[in-house]
């Protein structure tokens, strides 16, 4: 079995007297897609925020390829190879679809965010941006302002930007939320493609059980901030504590 690319050790965060994530230890490996599930308020997104650096841990560690990155900022972790889809907050609404992706490609190439002077000197970067737009079926909207896109296309653009940054660890927080039934397969196919790359580690928070079943190599269940189950999908879903804590809250799944 490959060594973990990402690991948490007793990861904890407290908000006053409330423990939102309570001593969670888990290791994630390349070529593996882990879906994190649990009822509302279970700590799933907070756990993501601790890993990606949006929140500082009260206790515990986050390690990336064996290096303790707990003290690093979100930007520092991104530079090390953690990529996260932020549910639209990383989009530039007044720029075009193409410009949004090209900035990500440019940043990945180490060329900074100069929007004009560098860009036209690097045709290969333009072609790479076009490649990612084609992957999310948005090449036909390349010149459209992001603010004018329907919600589903914004989510697809967010995935294109994440892919363009070429992180080692990809984190998706409910990637199909707000999408129509017709739009969901495009994003699921993209995640399948990422999952097929044995060098990538994928973490996914998802409520839709059909999506979980389609993608998961492994399921982690959080409940009241604690890790209550971790294993193969069929094994985890058969556990009594999961039936009670997760499947029993049917409206949330």
Short synopsis of the structure:
By secondary structure, the protein is of the alpha/beta class.
Number of strands: 10
The CATH class of the largest domain turns out to be Alpha Beta
Helical run tally: 9
CATH architecture group name of the largest domain: 3-Layer(aba) Sandwich
Judging from the principal axes of the Cα atoms, what is the shape?
A: globular
> Which band does the percent of strand residues land in?
15-25%
Give the quaternary arrangement of the chains: single chain
What structural class is derived from the secondary structure elements? alpha/beta
Which whole number gives the mean pLDDT? 86
Percent of residues in helices = 25-40%
Distance between the termini: 31 Å
Strand order across the largest sheet: 6-7-8-3-9-10
Following the backbone from N to C, one meets helices and strands in this order, namely EEEHEEHEHHHEHEHEEHH
Give the CATH superfamily of the largest domain: P-loop containing nucleotide triphosphate hydrolases
CATH topology of the largest domain: Rossmann fold
């Amino acid at each position: 079995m490959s060594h973990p690319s990402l690991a948490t050790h007793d990861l904890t965060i407290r908000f006053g007297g409330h423990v939102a994530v309570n001593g969670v230890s888990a290791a994630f490996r390349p070529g593996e897609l882990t879906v994190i599930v649990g009822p509302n308020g279970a700590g799933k997104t907070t756990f993501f925020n601790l890993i990606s650096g949006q929140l500082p841990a009260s206790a515990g560690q986050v390690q990336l390829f064996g290096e303790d990155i707990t003290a690093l900022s979100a930007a520092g972790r991104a530079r090390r190879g953690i990529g996260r889809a932020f549910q639209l907050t990383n989009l530039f609404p007044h720029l075009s679809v193409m410009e949004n992706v090209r900035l990500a490609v440019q940043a990945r190439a180490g060329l900074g965010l100069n929007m004009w002077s560098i860009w036209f000197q690097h045709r290969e970067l333009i072609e790479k941006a076009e490649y990612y737009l084609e992957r999310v079926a948005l090449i036909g909207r390349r010149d459209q302002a992001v603010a004018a896109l329907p919600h589903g296309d914004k989510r697809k653009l967010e995935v294109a930007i994440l892919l363009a940054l070429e992180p080692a660890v990809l984190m998706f927080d409910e990637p199909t939320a707000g999408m129509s039934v017709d739009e969901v397969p495009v994003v699921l196919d993209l995640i399948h493609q990422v999952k097929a790359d044995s060098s990538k580690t994928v973490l996914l928070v998802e409520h839709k059980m059909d999506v979980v079943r389609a993608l998961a190599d492994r399921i982690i269940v959080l409940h009241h901030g604690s890790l209550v189950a971790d294993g193969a999908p069929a094994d985890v879903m058969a556990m009594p504590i999961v039936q009670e804590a997760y499947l029993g809250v049917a409206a949330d799944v």
